Predict the structure of PAC domain-containing protein.
Amino acid sequence: MDVHVSPLADRDSGVLGAAVAFLDVMDAGRLHSELESTLGQLERAYEELQPADEELETTNEERSGSTSSPPTSGCPWNSWPR
């Protein structure tokens, strides 16, 4: 629970009172945890698929007789903000 308190002033800068806001951040924390977990699962799946992807690229290159640049290393989701 976050609590925000702000003073309420009149035109002469006299304090009239205070505004108090209570913010429930439990859902945001839970959602953030779920996002982190899902991102971890996605990164693991990507890492598991990398060898198969590289093998398919090699097979395609051998069949077509052409070469292409190697795939970029690392999971593209690593650059997402957390």
